[in-house]
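Q: Here's a chain of 386 amino acids. Please give me its 3D structure as C-alpha cells.
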Amino acid sequence: MVHPVFDNLPTTIFERMSGLARQHGAINLGQGFPDDQGPLPVREAAARALIEGLNQYPPMRGLPQLRAAVAGHYARTQDLQLDPDSEIVVTSGATEALAAAFTALISPGDEVVLFQPLYDAYLPLVRRAGGVPKLVTLKPPHWRFDRAMLEEVFSDNTRMVVLNSPLNPAGIVTRDEDLALLAEFCVKHDVLAVCDEVWEAVVFDGRRHRPLMTFPGMRARTVKIGSAGKLFGMTGWKVGFLMAAPPLAKALAAAHQFLTFTTPPNLQVGVAWGLDNHRAWFDEMPKDLQRSRDRLTAGLRAADYVVLESQGTYFLNVDLAASGIGLDDVTFCERCVTEHGVAAIPVSAFYAQSPVTTVVRLCFAKADATLDEAIKRLTAAREAMA
C-alpha cells in the first residue's frame, strides 16, 4: 500500500509546463534555472577534486573545509557567527535539508504554520512527518502577513513555522518589521522556525537579506537552510546547508544520516573553493540578474502587462486581471505555451487552498536574446487573449 500522503500526488506544474514547452518548442520561462552554466572557476575546482581528490565517503556532516567556508561566508554577508563543527550540516540540496528538518523536529499532531504561496515540497513533507499544516494566505501585490493573520494560526499546539524569504514565487523579501513580528510569535509560543533562505544572495535594488535567526530570541530556535545551487546558479549541484544551534543541529544530522548520509565530495570541494575564493560573484551575479529582470519588465510593460515588483529570486509576476486579461492563470499559461510558444507558471499552483488565480510567474534568469524573443511572443499573446 502507498502511504496516503504520496498516493495519487499529481505531476508537478513545473514538470507539466516544461513538458509542454518541449512538445511545442516553446521558450521555457517556467522552471527556475539560468541559461548560464555557472561560474567556471567553481566548476573547475570541482572537476579537479573529482580527478585528484577524495571519491569515497566524506564525513556525514560534510567536509570540514566546506563547513568552515559556509561559516565564513555567512559571517561576512549576514553577520552570523556559526560554529562549523557543531552548527552546520551539509546536505544533498535544500529539499533534503527540509526533509531532515521536518523529520527530526515534527512529531505526529504538531501544528506547523506555513505561508502560501509555498514551495510544493512543504506540504507532503510536513504531512509525512505527522504535522498538521496551518496555512497563512498571502496575496498580491505586497504578499505580507500581519498580526491578525498570525493570531489566527498560532496556538499552544504550534510546534514550527516555515518561512521562505526571499519568497518564491512572489519575488518579495520579507520586511524587517514583519520578521520581528514573526519572531515575537515564535518566542511567545515557544515555536521552532525553519527558514528556507535559498534565494538569500539573489536580492535587488540595494537590499540586503536579513535572516530570522538574527532577531531577539531566535538564535536557539531557528534552523536556517541555504543552497549552493542557488548561490552559484548551478541548480543541479544539489548541495545544501543546515545551520542551527548545537542541540538542533545534532537532531538534524541524525535525520540527515538516514536520508542521503552524505553529498558528493568533489561538489563540496568546489562549493568551498567558491565561497572562499570567488567572492566577486556575489556582487556581480545579482547585478546581472537585476538587469535581466529590468529587461523583461520593461518589455512586458510596453505590451501593457501589469508587472508586480520583484525584489529577489529569478522571478517576476504578471497580474492578469490588472492587465485586462479575463482568463485564469492556468488557462492563460496553457494557451501561452501551446499557441504562443512561451512556458510560464500559474501561481495558483503554489496554493493548497483558496488560491490566487490571476497571477503568472516568469523566470528572467535567461539570455538577452531569449528574453527579447519571449517578449515578442508574450506581446502577441496579450493581443490575442485580452
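Q: Can you summarize the key feature?
A: The mean pLDDT is 96.
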